[in-house]
Amino acid sequence: MNSDQESLSLGEAATRFLASLSPEARGASQQEVYRFVRWYGWERPLAGLTAPEVANYAERLSLSDTNYMKKLELIRAFLIYAKKEGWSKANLATQLKAKKGKTLLRSSSRRGLPQTISLTQQGYAELKAELDALKSKRLQAIDEMRSAAADKDFRENAPLEAAREQHGQIEGRIKELEGTLKSATIIDSEPKVTLKVGIGDSVTLLDLASGEELHYTIVSPREVDPTQGKISSASPIGRALIGQGQGKVVEVVAPAGKLRYQVKQVEH
C-alpha cells in the first residue's frame, strides 16, 4: 500500500467505488454506502478503519432492522472493492456478519407480550404476497421430502436433509408472517402534509455538514429496504426523527461525532 492509498479518505473511496458501478447498481448502493461513510467521517482515512469498528456497525444495524442483511451486502461490496484496489490491508467485509438472535423485534417479544406492529398499506400487501407464495412453496417442499425419503439409505441421504431444512425454514417464515399480519395495524396512507414525523412518513433531510439532501421513508423494522430509502423507526436516525417537525434540527451521535440534519419536508 503506497502513501496515496494510505491517505485515501472514506468519502473519496466511496465516490470511486460508486463511479465503478452501473447506473442502476449505483442508485441502489449510493445512499447506504454514503451513510456508512458519514457514520465514521467523510475525511477519515480508509486505512485507519478497524475490524472491531466495522463489526460494531453490523451489530448496530442488527439491533434496529430485521432486513439489515440487505444493507450489509451493499456495504460489504464496497469494502471488498476497497481491498481489491489495495486501499485497505484487511478484508473488512468479513466483519459484516449476521448477528443471530439479537434483533429488536425478538427482544421486544419476550415473556409472551403481544406486539403491535405498524405497517404501511404497501408493506402489508408485500408481506401478504410473500405469505401466499410460501404456502404454495410449502407443498413443493413436502413433495421433495417425500421423494428424497424414498431412498432407504438414510445414513447418507443429503437430499432428504436438505429438503427437511428447506421445509423447516419455510414453516418458520410462514409462522412469523402470520403473526405479523395478525397483529399489524395499517397506517393511513391518504396523501397529506404532516407536522410531526411518524412511521410511514417520507422525510427530506438536509445534512448540515455537507449540504446534501437525503430522502428517507420511516418504516417499521420489518419493512426496511435500503435500496428504496426505507429506514427503520428503531435506527439511530429513525429514533431521532420520530416526533420531530418540519424545520427542526436533529442530532445523531456517531463515531465521527454528532451528525446534524434539518428536517426540510415531511409527507405522509
Per-chain topology:
Blueprint: H1 3-6, H2 10-19, H3 23-40, H4 51-62, H5 68-84, H6 104-108, E1 117-119, H7 121-149, H8 158-183, E2 184-186, E3 202-207, E4 213-219, E5 230-232, H9 236-241, E6 249-254, E7 257-267
Parallel strand pairs: 1-2, 4-5
Antiparallel strand pairs: 3-4, 3-7, 6-7
Helix pairs in contact: 2-3, 3-5, 7-8
Question: How would you characterize this protein structure?
Answer:
This protein has 268 residues and is of the alpha/beta class. The chain folds into 3 domains: 104 residues, DNA polymerase, domain 1 (Orthogonal Bundle); 66 residues, Helix Hairpins (Orthogonal Bundle), CATH 1.10.287; 66 residues, Roll (Chitinase A, domain 3). It has 9 helices and 7 strands; from the N terminus they run H-H-H-H-H-H-E-H-H-E-E-E-E-H-E-E. Strand 3 and strand 4 form a beta hairpin. It is flat, with a radius of gyration of 21 Å. The termini are far apart. About 6% of the residues have low confidence.
